[in-house]
Write a structure and sequence with these properties.
Blueprint (H helix, E strand, L loop, with lengths): L3 E5 L12 H14 L3 E4 L11 H15 L4 E5 L5 H13 L4 E5 L8 H13 L4 E6 L1 H4 L5 H8 L5 E6 L4 H12 L6 E4 L5 H7 L3 E3 L7 H12 L3 H14 L10 H10 L17 H13 L4
Parallel strand pairs: 1-2, 1-8, 2-3, 3-4, 4-5, 5-6, 6-7, 7-8
Helix pairs in contact: 1-2, 1-9, 2-3, 4-6, 9-10, 11-12
Length: 297
Amino acid sequence: MKTKIITPALSIFKADGALDVDTTVKTYKRLADGGVDGILMFGSCGEFFGVTLEEKKALLKAAQEAVGDRVELMAGTGGMSFRETIELTKYAASIGIKKVLVVSTYYFPANEEDLVSYYGAVADCSDADMYFYDIPECVGYDITPSIVLKVHEGRKNVMGYKDTISSVAHTCDLINTVCDKYPDFEVFNGYETQLPVNVAAGGAGVIGGMSNLVPEFFAKWVKAFNDNDFEKIAEGEKYISYISKIYSINTPFMPTLKRALKIMGVIEEDRCAAPFSKIYEAKTKELVSIMETANIL
C-alpha cells in the first residue's frame, strides 16, 4: 500500500469571524504545490465546529474548482447534527469530492448498535468513499474494529479510518483486524511521529497538521517510505519529533499553527473560531525559536 500524507488543512477566518474562503483556498494551492497527496477540509485543524453549513458548502465548491484536479480532496462532513452530516456528505459527493471523513457525534457516548446504524446511514447516503474519524479524547468514546467491520459488511464505499490516539497498539489492532479482511482499507494515524509504526504495520500514512507548515518536507518523507530509504526515514522522524513541540505551545494547537503561517507570510489574519483566541507574545517567541531551529524561517 502506498504511503500518503494528507494535510488536515486550517480554515482561515476574517476579522469578523466569517470564513475566508478565498484565503483558505490559497493555502490549499500552497499545499498542492508542496506535493501533499491529499487535503482534508473541516477536520479538527479546519475547526469544523465553528463553521456554518453554508460556509462549508462554499469552501468545498471553491476548493474542488481550484485544486480538485491536482490533489485528493477529503471533506470532513461529520458534526453534531445527523441531518447536516447527511446533507453535507451528499453535497460533497454531488460536486465531485470522492472522499468524506466522518467524526462521531459527541457530548453523550453512543453504543455500538447506534454507531453501526449512524455510520451505515452516512455511507449509504452517497457514493463517496467514507472514512471513520476516531478521536476519543474529544468525542469521549472509541470507534472499535467491531464497529468498522459491521459497517463495512455489504458496502463497497467504507474505505478507511483516521486513528487519532496516542497508543500505536490501537492502530496495529485495527489494521490486523480490519485490513486482514479488507486489504484496501486505509488506516491513517493522526500523529506524525507514529508514521513509521503505521507503515510497518500495513497502514496508509498520516493525516497530520504539521504539514500545513512544511508540506515539502512531508512529501519527501513519505517518498522515503515508498522508496524504502531507511536513512531518510530516520532523519525525518528525528525532524518531525522536534517540530512537534509546536503542538504543545498552546491548547488547542490551531492558533499556534495559524500564527506560524502568519509569521511565514502565508496568511495575514490568524483568528480562530470562538472561543479560541490568538496566542500571546511569550508563546509566539517560543514558536519562533522552534521554527528558526528547524529552518522553517
